[in-house]
Amino acid sequence: MKKNRIVIVILIVGFVGVFVAYKMYNKPHVNVVETKSDITLSASKILNDFSTDENAANKLYLEKIIKINGTISELNIEKERGIITLKTRDNFGSVLCHLSEGGMKKMKSLKVGQTITLKGICTGFLMDVILVKCEIIS
User: Fold this and answer.
1) How far apart are CA 96 and CA 122, in angstroms?
2) Mean pLDDT for the chain?
3) S-S: 131 plus which of 49, 73, 74, 120, CB 3.0-4.6 Å?
4) CB 39 within 8 A of CB 60
């Protein structure tokens, strides 16, 4: 009798786990262009927040759509993907914006030293703040 209950509980937990995994895997992708940004700020502000208190910054910014402005310090293409580096007041860190395919098309018209506004999803901090799926706003 107890064995049957244990088996039933294990099966239920297994089915729930499979269902949740299936839903997460098939979750629709966020369209950054059409989605309203959660937060608007400068490259220096977000880097300062992560440098000061990474845990608090993670709660504020992680997985949120961020509209960010700053000055371009580098334009790179790695593995056929564009990366715009935004300069900050901190000499040891910056904001790396990994462009979407749509953003890549606009990258050719940009220049180092230009002020720019981008919108992307914050994925965290590793010496630099990382934004992915970035779109060039202006």
Assistant:
1) 10
2) 87
3) 120
4) yes
Spatial distance between the Cα atoms of 19 and 13, rounded to a whole number of angstroms: 10
Alpha-carbon distances, residue 124 vs 22, 33, 62, 97, 121 (angstroms): 25, 20, 6, 12, 9
Domain at 39-136, CATH homologous superfamily: Nucleic acid-binding proteins (2.40.50.140)
pLDDT at 28: 62
Burial (CB < 10 A; 0-12, 13-18, 19+), residue 134, is buried
Positive or negative torsion for Cα 39, 44, 47, 48: negative
Tokens representing 78 are: 């790695």
Question: Do 93 and 130 meet the contact criterion of CB atoms below 8 Å apart?
Answer: no
How far apart CA 52 and CA 98 sit, in angstroms, is: 24
